[in-house]
Specification:
Chain B: Belongs to the bacterial solute-binding protein 1 family. The complex is a heterodimer. By secondary structure, chain A is mainly α. Chain A has a single domain, classed as MetI-like (MetI-like fold, Orthogonal Bundle), CATH 1.10.3720.10. Chain A has 14 helices and no strands. In chain A, helix 4 packs across helix 10 and helix 8 runs antiparallel to helix 9. Chain A is globular and about 70 Å long. Chain B has two domains: 166 residues, D-Maltodextrin-Binding Protein, domain 2 (3-Layer(aba) Sandwich); 211 residues, Periplasmic binding protein-like II (D-Maltodextrin-Binding Protein, domain 2, 3-Layer(aba) Sandwich), CATH 3.40.190. Chain B contains 18 helices and ten strands. In chain B, the strands form two sheets. In chain B, strands 1, 2, 3, 6, 7, 8, 9 and 10 form an eight-stranded mixed beta sheet that branches. A two-stranded antiparallel sheet of chain B has the order 4-5. In chain B, helix 17 runs antiparallel to helix 18. The longest helix of chain B has 19 residues. Classes of the chains: A mainly alpha, B alpha/beta. The interface between A and B is large, with 31 and 44 residues.
């Protein structure tokens, strides 16, 4: 009797999980399907899910019209560069906040997080002027700096949470064995917190890849990443849904593949310390 | 020795050629005519091998945000910017644009349509060159009109449009008599309703910059719009912009559609439109007060003051907006695809008139639009479907949201107008008008 009831619950949970997953995935599926339609079919009042004439025309047109690989390379450099640069700053910052706490640590953490509450447009003009004056407009380096600074509070917070789960005694033991700060972080802390660091890195790569305010404003023809590539396929006058869908698929596929292969690491890192 | 010398000379010459090559960055919108310009720019490269072109193509709103930031801060990221008739008077007044005074002897400035040239000039100096222009017009289904026993006049009234919409509507068959923009936004429903209100005798401001939404003319405009859209419009009209109505019209769901003249090319394109051979065109309607509900919009090419390559940029603009460019498009893409609404000579060309059945209505609509005298009563501003002041994007969208709420029934017409009056009064006070 108890097994029956438990099986039923399992089936219900599975169904609910599939339904929610389906709802989340449906817009992506719809975009993928639309990318294989003609523009006329894409706007049809009675759209078909699979029964239409499949075409690769949108992909060939998009590839012919835009330098996709230039945008792709910019996205890779900006998102990876910003995530690695962010880690280099966030790891020592999170270490000090987790293991050398003062009475101001919590306030400092909250202040760092509060910078995320500021609408980006509020600092647009000062940053734009600064970039203009130092020649960083439309450069990858400029975007790496901005992306690093934007995501730094999240990186510090994530790493701080992971580091807090590591028993202080382990680090104390290392210190008693004569380890300095550098050895403590590099040889003791990092190997233990590797899943957390990896998930922080991956999450920030995704955040930087998808960022579409600064990447659109601060770039023109040289450093524009895939967000600018997508934005070039929307139009207020004319048919564009199929080509826009093709451009969107081409922009998200690399990050989807990365997410797919690293999902185990990502989930492990994100749930690190969630259950005691 | 001689060989060595000549090699050195050749090397020096090629170095000098490299040094002289300039790259200009062009920011443009993702509209069909601009994509064609990009495709055909190899012709420009052939004529000017020492000028390289870098393209930044973006969706209209993103482009506006980006070029506005750049031009206002003197960022210098772009050498040629695609901007609209809304920006030109404001930006030239701020000295953010360079005057286009070196377009070349062959350019023929006097061939530009007078209404267009006037909208892009300050004190007779041209600050932007028109790339393509549009007004608005009525597009209608000739078969449904005939079935309804009506004949569309060349210059209909709003009352005729109401009558025709009622006669053409067949909701059971999924056919709606009238499709109009309902999506909130200064470039969406406000473009339509501001132009429409001009024909009803309304205006945004009186001569002292006092908002006029409490006037009878605005009430008549909005009541008409809400009434016809609720009775004869498609469901969910408050979410419809240009593209949504285009899709409805092309799939045979609209009896009439009043929108940009550029749509003429889309609805008669047999590849995409199911009703391509059943479309007629007429001027935007009037209300018997001497003004029609048509607007005027021009996509133009301009050089920001921050550009350091203005000579090369000027040469590009001169090429892209010339008569020769129109001929190049005609040769490569056909006359129907030539950017419309900029030059009088295009409308004297029988080949173009033959290829574009909407050409004459487009020309008449553009010629009848007067951005400097847009309303029945005098106003202190320039602009037909917009008011050319920096605050308009904000207040236009806010008012558009009130009108959209009236369309969905979340507000009455009176409430929407009262609310608009209040919010525009507040915005104008804050901006310290009259200036």
């Amino acid at each position: 009797m108890a097994t029956n009831s438990s099986n039923k619950t399992k089936v219900i949970y599975t169904l609910v999980a599939w339904t929610i997953s389906g709802m989340i995935f449906f817009p992506i599926l719809w975009t993928i399907i639309t990318s294989f339609k003609t523009e006329a079919e894409a706007i049809s009042a009675s759209p078909s899910l699979f029964m239409f004439e499949w075409t690769l025309e949108n992909y060939t047109q998009v590839l012919a019209r835009s330098p996709y690989f230039d945008h792709f390379l910019n996205s890779v450099i900006i998102s990876l560069g910003a995530s690695i640069a962010g880690l280099l700053v966030a790891i020592p910052a999170a270490w000090s906040m987790a293991f050398v706490q003062t009475k101001r640590t919590k306030g400092l953490l909250m202040w760092m997080l509060s910078t995320k509450m500021l609408p980006p447009v509020g600092v647009l003009i000062p940053i734009y002027l600064l970039f203009r004056d130092v020649g960083l407009l439309d450069t990858r380096l400029g975007l790496v700096i901005v992306m690093t600074l934007i995501n730094l509070p999240i990186m510090v917070w994530m790493l701080y949470t992971y580091f807090r789960e590591i028993p202080h005694e382990i680090l104390e033991a290392a210190r008693m064995d004569g380890a300095g700060i550098k050895e403590e972080i590099l040889t003791v802390l990092l190997p233990i917190a590797l899943p957390g660091i990896a998930s922080t890195l991956l999450l920030n790569v995704i955040l930087a890849w998808n960022e579409a305010f600064w990447t659109l404003i601060l770039t023109a023809a040289h450093a524009a990443p895939l967000t600018a590539f997508i934005a070039s396929y929307s139009s207020p006058e004319g048919l564009f849904y199929a080509k826009l869908s093709a451009a969107s698929v081409m922009a998200v596929v690399p990050i989807l593949i990365l997410g797919w292969f690293s999902q185990k690491q990502l989930v492990r890192g994100l749930s690190f310390g969630a259950v005691k | 020795m001689l060989k060595k010398l000549s090699l050195m000379l050749a090397g020096a010459m090629s170095l000098s050629a490299i040094a002289q090559t300039q790259t200009i960055t062009i920011a443009t919108v993702n509209n069909g005519d601009m994509i064609t310009m990009k495709e055909l720019s190899s012709d420009f490269k052939k004529k000017y091998p020492d000028i390289d072109l870098k393209w930044v193509t973006l969706e209209e709103n993103i482009l506006r945000q980006r070029v506005t930031t750049d031009v206002a801060t003197g960022g210098g990221q772009y050498d040629v910017m695609t901007i609209g008739t809304y920006e030109v008077p404001i930006w030239s007044k701020q000295e953010w644009l360079q005057p286009l005074d070196a377009l070349g002897e062959q350019y023929d400035v006097d061939d530009l349509l007078p209404a267009i040239k006037s909208g892009l000039s300050v004190d007779d100096t041209l600050y932007a060159a028109p790339f393509y222009g549009e007004s608005s017009m009525v597009m209608y289904r000739t078969d449904l009109m005939e079935k309804a026993g009506l004949k569309m006049p060349k210059a209909p009234s709003w009352e005729f449009v109401r009558k025709a919409a009622a006669a053409m509507t067949d909701k059971a068959a999924g056919v709606y008599g009238l499709c109009l923009r309902g999506k909130a936004g200064w470039g969406e429903n406000i473009a339509l309703l501001t132009a429409m209100s001009n024909s009803f005798g309304a205006r945004w401001f009186d001569e002292n910059w006092q908002p006029q939404f409490d006037s009878k003319a605005w009430k008549d405009t909005l009541e008409y719009y809400v009434d016809v859209m609720n009775k004869y419009g498609p469901p969910g009209a408050s979410a419809n912009g240009f593209n949504e109505n285009l899709a409805l019209f092309q799939t045979g769901k609209c009896g009439m559609w009043i929108d940009a003249t550029v749509a003429g090319g889309f609805v008669t394109n047999k590849k995409d439109s199911e009703v391509a051979d059943k479309v007629g065109f007429a001027l935007a309607p009037d209300h018997g007060l001497g003004k029609r509900g048509n607007w005027l919009w021009e996509w133009t090419l301009a050089i920001p003051s921050s550009s350091k390559k203005s000579d090369a940029a000027m040469q590009f603009i001169s090429w892209a907006t010339s008569k020769e460019y129109a001929e190049l498009v005609a040769e490569k893409k056909g006359w129907a695809n030539v950017p419309p609404g900029t030059r009088a000579s295009l409308y004297e060309n029988p080949e173009y008139l033959n290829a574009a059945p909407f050409a004459q209505i487009t020309l008449d609509s553009i010629n009848s639009a007067d951005p400097k005298n847009p309303t029945v009563d005098p106003v202190p501003y320039v602009g037909i479907q917009f008011v050319a002041i920096p605050e308009f994007q904000g207040i236009g969208t806010a008012v558009g949201q009130q009108f959209s709420a009236a369309l969905t029934g979340r507000m009455t017409v009176d409430q929407a107008l009262q609310s608009s009056q209040r919010l525009v009064e507040r915005a104008m006070r804050k901006a310290r008008y009259p200036k």
